[in-house]
Design goal:
3-stranded antiparallel β-sheet; 21% helix; 34% strand; elongated
């Protein structure tokens, strides 16, 4: 059987800003914000063959939703590659979304 989904070294990194506690730290943060890199997904690789039933398990903050959003084309990955039924979700989004269904709740 052929692979329907191929994910290779998929990663997503965000930049957020450090928050201080208290009035003094909050005022300081208005002028000097410290960047904090956050890795949401770190080089995830997997294949799904036709007919497979798949579940993604992990603790809170493990990157499950982020991975699904990258697979649906909602988020752009910062690294790695995704191939779903011959489509790259980030490059062929208009055609790709007509072929899939996804519900987020």
């Amino acid at each position: 059987m052929e692979n329907i989904i191929t994910v290779d070294k998929l990663s997503k990194k965000h930049i957020t800003y450090k928050r201080g506690s208290g009035l003094k730290e909050s005022l300081k943060a208005l002028f000097f914000r410290e960047k904090v890199p956050v890795t949401a997904v770190n080089e995830v690789s997997f294949n799904v063959q036709e007919g497979d039933i798949v579940g993604i398990l992990g603790p809170n903050g493990a990157g499950k939703s982020t991975t699904i959003k990258m697979l649906t084309g909602t988020l752009y990955p910062t690294g790695g590659s995704i191939d779903v039924m011959g489509y790259n979700p980030t490059k062929n989004r208009k055609i790709y979304v007509q072929q899939i269904g996804a519900v987020f709740g």
